[in-house]
Amino acid sequence: MSPKKKKVFITVKTYPTLSAKYDELVCTAGITEKGRWIRIYPVPFRKLEWKKQYRKYQWIELDLIRNKSDFRQESYKPANQGQTIQSKEFIKNWEDRKKIIFKAKVYADLDSLIKDAKNKSKKISLAVFKPEKIIDFKCEPVEDRKWDSKKIKTIKENAKQLDLFNSDKPHEFFRIVNKLPYKFSYVFQDKLGKKSKLMIEDWEIGALYWNCLKRDKNEKIAIQKVKNKYLNEFNKKDLYLFLGTTLQNHYRGKNPFIIIGVFPPPFTSQMSLL
Questions:
Q1: Is the dihedral of CA 6, 129, 226, 151 positive or negative?
Q2: Single residue among 39, 71, 99 that ends a domain in this structure
Q3: Measured distance CA(240)–CA(260) in Å, rounded
Q4: Distance, CA of 273 to CA of 26 (rounded, Å)
Q5: pLDDT tens figures, 156-199
Q6: Are 226 and 209 in contact (CB under 8 A)?
Q7: Which of 75, 106, 169, 226 is the one with CA 20 to 30 A from 264?
Q8: Percent helix / strand / coil, the chain, rounded to 5
């Protein structure tokens, strides 16, 4: 299959995971100009410059091919490791962001979304979801706070090689991101009253935790500040969730979705609609 140049509006950057095969990775996802979801994976997250490459709510352009190792229809990967991802316009205004994002279907019934995911003719694996009510925000400690040492060793060896962004000296910038010591989740209700609990694997929630911990030097305070933002502050917004399935659980899991991002625009006042 020949590569196609795609313009994608970035809505999701998940917290990095480690892979002995592909190094440190994030799942990047976004919406095309036609309102179609695209998942871009694998993308290395090995250098500090990564966050400067492109941001959430920014258009990017790159050559993509279907990821044949992933049956999910939205899954693509960079066509070649040497290409440069072109960062385009950053969209600052919430209403302009909504015009792009809401070209995609917005689900409000979780069972309907799961049904479409399990339907082999649709295989929906990325979606915008509107919760009826956010009930709670959970923070639970993980069993192992450290990454697998064997994977770290392999990644450090691979770091000396040229990567996707064609850096001349990737090892000089390489730093493995810390593993999050907590799992964060939303408990919410959909429009039909179905109550669910889903993990949040957004890059932003991990970055918020580490920034709070660095500033306050106290895990309990850091957790409380994360909860305050995601539960109290976002509950005052017109909150939407970006949901995605995991490859392993897409067909096996009763509910294969996790929260891979949040979209919290302010409520639109009636006056602004006149």
A1: negative
A2: 99
A3: 11
A4: 38
A5: 666 655 454 445 444 444 567 788 999 999 999 999 999 999 99
A6: yes
A7: 75
A8: 25, 35, 40
Q: pLDDT digit string (tens) for 213-223?
A: 999 999 999 99
Contact 237, 266 (CB under 8 A): yes
d(CA 88, CA 102): 20
Residue recorded with tokens 């040492």 = 149
Nearest to 70 by CA among 252, 245, 260, 272: 245
Nearest to 68 by CA among 1, 20, 133: 1
Domain termination site, one of 45, 69, 99: 99
In whole angstroms, give the CA distance from residue 206 to residue 180. 7
β 126-129/106-107 pair status: parallel
Q: What's CA 193's distance to the chain center, in Å?
A: 26
CB atoms within 10 A of CB 69: 10
